[in-house]
Amino acid sequence: MFPAVLIVDDNKSIIDSLEGILSDDGFEVFHAYNGYEALKKIHTESPDIVLLDIWMPGMDGIETLKEIKKEYPHLPVIMITGHGSIESAVDATKSGAFDFLEKPLSIDRVIVTINNALNFRRLEEENRYLRKKSIEKHSVNGFSAAIQSLNRQIMHAAPSEASVLITGENGTGKELVARTLHHFSGRPEGPFIIINCAAIPENNINSELFGHDKGAFPEAVAKNKGKFELASGGTLFLDEIGDMNLATQAMMLRAIESKTFQRVGGGRTIHADVRIIAASNKNLATEIKKGNFREELFYRLNVIPVHVPPLRERKEDIPTLTQIFLSACAKDARNSAKSIHKDAMALLHNYDWPGNVRELKNLMERLHIMVPGDTIFANDIPHPYHVGENTQPCPGLFAIENLKEATQQFEIAFLKNKISLESGDIQAAAEKLGIDPGYVEDTIEKSTPKKQDIK
Ligand SMILES: Nc1ncnc2c1ncn2[C@@H]1O[C@H](COP(=O)(O)OP(=O)(O)OP(=O)(O)O)[C@@H](O)[C@H]1O
């Protein structure tokens, strides 16, 4: 398909000559003699680019540009200016014009500028597409009340410039929350820079955070920007902030408070336009009491506290997350997503997930690869996850010397396991085993110590 260009000029001879040149170069060309007509043509012909004269009677080029940008913010517009009207052209670029061309028009420059604008538009579209994909990929998924409330907090906190402190166990999704905050902030186009505070080598920390000038220390053979500077215009994510040493905490506090810093070996004060988001899996209040964390820094970071609960406290999210991860694996591998049998799901439900969502995601990736069929059954789930199924059903079974007692112990463990696979539903477990639910209930009840039995 040929790119379509709309030329807007009240001067017929300019339209004619541009139309001739651009048609010869393979463009589809439309024209309009004034701003009103241009807006209509954009609506009916959907051009890929507009060449717009600044000086026109009635609605002039700048006004037309503003109207175009209101409705079609991504449509590139190149202004055509008379000789000596550079100031208006600069105004136009401030109002969203891609570039300007000065009369008399040079054919080469017209073609180059149009191609630049089209390339830019293509890149922008690609960028928007990738951003959308990335937002989908980075959504904090789950229908539990806890996740719904977390998403509401994210939406409230994101547009503000205030610091956010995210707490939660490993693998609960703290980095994901930080990325989502950045996506929905007022600076989504800016960089998202991560500092893993637990992983920076102590001897290098200043330079890592604030950069260094050439010659600052023997290894500094060239100037280097630190993470603070790299995050300018975007978000700086301080992961595992609880592991930052006290001296670095003091420097960090100074930089956050003054919004300025200096490179190592550099005298110049650099302004940092950075939004701070921090995360910790440690209880910082406890760390303050122990003298490991600066109280002032805590208050600086904790302007908006956000807690991500562990997966064991929101097990109702497991089916949704499982499905999302299996679909993502299938999409990456370009094959179809596997489903999970309900016995396998019961196992996932019984497990406590110490590694939280990361552990669930890793398990799904493994099962997607290792399970040959379309369905993941309970016996496909690796053993550590068979909680309640008890690979060691009755510890000490062989130490029992009485056959009747050993049989009873085994029976109890066996029944408990089947009940847990049915998510606690005795009726369903009994039905599967083809026995009377009353019998199952009695057996389990007999095995449960009564209050008066507990001395
Ligand atoms: N609610 C969720 N929906 C979808 N994916 C999630 C969710 N929560 C976490 N994940 C995924 O789980 C993995 C671990 O999450 P993340 O790295 O954000 O955890 P974390 O709390 O920052 O971990 P750590 O404390 O170890 O740094 C990531 O791949 C993330 O995309």
TrEMBL record:
**Known InterPro entries for this protein?**
AAA+_ATPase (IPR003593), AAA_lid_NorR (IPR058031), CheY-like_superfamily (IPR011006), Homeodomain-like_sf (IPR009057), P-loop_NTPase (IPR027417), Sig_transdc_resp-reg_receiver (IPR001789), Sigma_54_int (IPR002078), Sigma_54_int_dom_ATP-bd_2 (IPR025943)
The GO biological-process annotations, alphabetized, read as:
phosphorelay signal transduction system; regulation of DNA-templated transcription
Query: What GO molecular function annotations does the UniProt record carry, in alphabetical order?
Result: ATP binding; DNA binding
The superkingdom of the source organism is Bacteria
Q: What name does UniProt use for this protein? A: Two-component system, NtrC family, nitrogen regulation response regulator NtrX
Q: Cite the SUPFAM superfamilies for this sequence.
A: CheY-like, Homeodomain-like, P-loop containing nucleoside triphosphate hydrolases
Q: Where in the cell is it found?
A: Cytoplasm
Q: Which organism is it from?
A: Desulfocicer vacuolatum DSM 3385
> Which residue numbers delimit the Sigma-54 factor interaction domain?
140-369
Report the residues modified as 4-aspartylphosphate: D53
What keywords is this UniProt entry annotated with? Activator, ATP-binding, Cytoplasm, DNA-binding, Nucleotide-binding, Phosphoprotein, Transcription, Transcription regulation, Two-component regulatory system
Domain annotation Response regulatory: ranges: 4-118
Where is it found, in Gene Ontology cellular component terms? cytoplasm
